[in-house]
Design goal:
Layout: E1 4-7, H1 8-12, H2 20-24, H3 31-40, H4 50-53, H5 70-78, E2 80-84, H6 89-92, H7 113-122, E3 127-133, H8 162-173, E4 176-181, H9 194-211, E5 217-219, H10 235-245, E6 250-253, E7 259-261, E8 276-277, H11 289-294, E9 301-302, E10 305-310, H12 326-334, E11 342-346, H13 357-374, E12 383-386, E13 421-439, E14 448-456, E15 461-469, E16 475-494, E17 502-506
Parallel strand pairs: 2-3, 2-11, 3-4, 4-5, 5-6, 6-7, 7-10, 10-11
Antiparallel strand pairs: 1-15, 8-9, 12-13, 13-16, 13-17, 14-15, 14-16
C-alpha cells in the first residue's frame, strides 16, 4: 500500500514564492486543477533577463566539513574502476599462491595490455588497477629487490614488464592507472622482520611510483592468512611516501586515508553510506564491517567507500568458472555506484594474457543496460519550482532548474533559515518510471540525511513512492513502476542547508523489482544518529571559501 500524503492545498500553502492570483482561487477550484495551474505557471528563469543581471550575485553557501580533496573528487566522478588480478595464480588454478611456485609457470603468450584497457574503456570504467604483486610475492615488473618476478619467467624471454605495458596502454587510451602492492608477501625472506621488510616494501613502492608515470590509485589491504608471521607495517610512512611521489593518487585501504573498503567483497554498500568517516576508529586488517559499510554522519575525515567484487566467483581466472550475468552486474551497480561508492569490478585476464570473450560479452551487455536506462532523464523537460531558492526567485544562480543539468558544479540551493526543502516537478505529461537518481555537489560537503519522493495521484493526493537516507555523489533508488505527471522531492533531514545538483527519473525494464516495496524505507539510519529537522550549521565546522 502506498502511504498517502497531505492534500495539494496543504502541500503548496507554505511556498516561499507564492502566486497571489492562484491563492485567490484556491477555494473555488479543485485541488488537482490548482496543482496544474501552479505547474503551468512555473517557467524557467532566464539567465539573461535584465532583472537578474541588475541584481548583485548571491555568493554560494559555505561548504560544510569535511570536504573531498581534488584526487578524491576525481576518483568519485569516475564511479567505476576495473581490477585486474593476474599472476602465477592464473596458471596454477589458485587464489592465494604459496610464494614457492616456479617463475617458469608465468608465461602469458598472447598478453595484450591494450586489449585490457580497451575493454575497460569501452565498458565505461575510468581506471584500471593491476595486482603488481599479490600475496605470493611474485612481481609483474622487473624489480631490483627480488628475483621472484617476470625477469625470471620465460615470458618475453625474461625481458617483459606487465606494469610497463599496462601503463603505456592506459596512458594512450586516456584512462587512469592504479596498482595493488600486497603488504603480505609469502615469498620474501624479510617478511616478519619489521625494519627490513618495511624498507623492502617501501623500496618496491618507490620503483612503482617513479618508473611508470602518473598513478591515480594505490591499493593495499591487511589480508593475511591465519598462522602467518607477525608483521608490523609502517602504514603512516607508506602513506607519506605515496603522497610525496604521487600527490594526485588516492590511497585505498581498510581505513583510508583517501578511500576505504566497504567491508565486504560482494560489491554491496550499506543503504546508508556516508563519505564521512573517522580514520581513528578504523584499523587496517581489523575491520568493523558495519562501520565501514555505512560511514559516520559525525565523521571528521572524508573517506568514501570502494566496493570490490569479481565478475567471476574467484579473483583470479579459472577455466572452470563463468562470469556473472549482465543483470547481476546491474544490480551490483545500483548497490555500489548507486549508494555513493565506487564500483571496483575485477575482470581477471586468462592464462593467455587476454580478457576472455565471455567476460567481454557480459561487459558489453552491462554497458548496454546502463545506456538503455540512463541515457535519457524523463524529467529533462519538466517545469520545476522549489519551496524557496537562495537569493530569491529572481536570482538564477541557484534556481531549481539546475537539478536537470548534468554534473555537480551547478545546483539548487534553498534560502537560509528554512525548514521546508521541496522540489516540485510537472513532467507535462503522464510518465512511467521506477528509478530515482539524486546527486549532491559533494565539493560542498555531504549534507542530506533523509529524503523521500512523492507523486500526485488522480485523486489529488500525494503518495510516497520511496524514501532513503544519504545521497552523496550519487543515489539510485529502485521501486515498483509508478505513473504520474506531478512529483515532489522532499528533503526531511540534513546536516546543513541541502544542495541538490541533479535529479533524474528513469525506467528500468530489466531488473526484477518484485521483492521491493515502495512503502518500506531504504534501511534508514538509527534515530540516535540523525539530526532532526533543520540543523543550524556549526560555523566551527564549516570551511571558508
Amino acid at each position: 500500500m502506498k502511504r498517502k500524503r497531505q492534500s495539494i492545498h496543504k502541500a503548496t500553502s507554505h511556498l516561499h514564492n507564492p502566486i497571489t492570483q492562484t491563492q485567490i482561487f484556491t477555494n473555488s477550484i479543485s485541488q488537482l486543477t490548482l496543482f496544474i495551474f501552479l505547474s503551468l505557471s512555473l517557467t524557467p528563469l532566464s539567465l539573461s533577463s535584465s532583472s537578474s543581471s541588475s541584481l548583485p550575485k548571491k555568493p554560494p553557501p559555505l561548504p560544510i566539513l569535511p570536504l573531498p580533496s581534488a584526487p578524491q573528487l576525481q576518483w568519485q566522478l569516475g564511479h567505476m574502476a576495473m581490477f585486474l588480478h593476474f599472476g602465477p595464480n592464473t596458471f596454477t588454478d589458485s587464489e592465494w599462491g604459496t610464494g614457492h611456485v616456479d617463475p617458469s609457470a608465468f608465461n602469458p603468450t598472447k598478453l595484450n595490455a591494450t586489449q585490457w584497457v580497451k575493454v575497460a574503456k569501452d565498458s565505461g570504467f575510468s581506471r584500471v588497477i593491476l595486482t603488481a604483486k599479490h600475496h605470493d610475492g611474485f612481481c609483474l615488473w622487473p624489480t631490483e629487490y627480488t628475483n621472484y618476478s617476470v625477469s625470471s619467467s620465460p615470458w618475453r624471454n625474461g625481458g617483459g614488464d606487465v606494469v610497463g605495458e599496462l601503463a603505456m596502454a592506459a596512458r594512450d587510451a586516456g584512462i587512469g592507472l592504479g596498482l595493488y602492492l600486497s603488504p603480505w608477501d609469502r615469498h620474501e625472506p624479510f617478511y616478519g622482520k619489521t625494519l627490513e621488510y618495511n624498507e623492502f616494501y617501501m623500496g618496491q613502492m618507490t620503483e612503482l611510483l617513479t618508473r611508470y608515470g602518473e598513478m591515480k590509485e594505490v591499493w593495499l589491504d591487511g589480508a593475511k592468512g591465519k598462522g602467518e608471521k607477525d608483521m608490523e607495517y609502517f602504514f603512516d610512512s607508506w602513506f607519506s611516501l605515496i603522497h610525496q611521489l604521487q600527490p594526485g593518487a588516492v590511497i585505498f585501504s581498510d581505513a583510508g586515508p583517501d578511500t576505504r573498503w566497504v567491508g565486504d567483497e560482494a560489491g554491496v554498500a550499506g543503504s546508508t553510506c556516508w563519505s564521512l568517516f573517522n580514520r581513528s576508529d578504523a584499523k587496517i586488517g581489523d575491520t568493523d564491517y558495519q562501520y565501514s559499510s555505512g560511514g559516520d554522519p559525525y565523521g571528521h575525515d572524508w573517506v568514501p567507500a570502494e566496493c570490490d567484487v569479481s565478475i567471476r566467483p574467484g579473483w583470479f581466472w579459472h577455466s572452470s568458472e563463468l562470469p556473472k550475468s549482465a543483470r547481476t552486474l546491474l544490480d551490483l551497480y545500483y548497490k555500489s555506484a548507486g549508494r555513493n561508492c565506487l564500483l571496483l569490478l575485477n575482470v581477471p585476464p586468462n592464462s593467455s594474457g587476454l580478457i576472455s570473450a565471455e567476460d567481454i560479452q557480459v561487459l558489453q551487455e552491462f554497458s548496454e543496460l546502463r545506456r538503455s536506462i540512463f541515457s535519457h532523464n524523463l524529467a529533462i523537460n519538466a517545469l520545476i519550482n522549489a519551496s524557496c531558492t537562495r537569493g530569491g526567485s529572481s536570482h538564477s544562480w541557484f534556481n531549481p532548474y539546475n537539478v536537470v543539468k548534468e554534473g555537480i558544479q551547478s545546483y539548487w540551493a534553498p534560502e537560509v533559515n528554512q525548514s521546508n526543502w521541496i522540489l516540485y516537478l510537472n513532467l507535462q505529461e503522464i510518465v512511467s518510471f521506477n528509478i530515482l537518481q539524486v546527486q549532491e555537489p559533494i565539493q560542498m560537503g555531504q549534507r542530506v540525511i533523509e529524503f523521500h519522493l512523492e507523486v500526485l495521484n488522480e485523486d489529488g493526493e500525494w503518495n510516497e513512492v520511496i524514501n532513503g537516507t544519504t545521497i552523496g555523489y550519487q543515489r539510485l533508488l529502485q521501486f515498483p513502476t509508478v505513473k504520474s505527471q506531478y512529483l515532489r522531492f522532499v528533503i526531511d533531514k540534513a546536516r546543513a542547508d541541502p544542495l541538490i545538483s541533479y535529479l533524474g527519473i528513469y525506467m528500468d525494464e530489466f531488473s526484477i523489482l518484485s521483492n521491493l516495496s515502495n512503502t518500506t524505507s531504504q534501511a534508514g539510519i538509527n534515530g540516535s544518529q540523525v539530526l532532526h529537522g533543520h540543523i543550524e550549521s556549526n560555523h566551527s565546522q564549516i570551511s571558508a571559501i
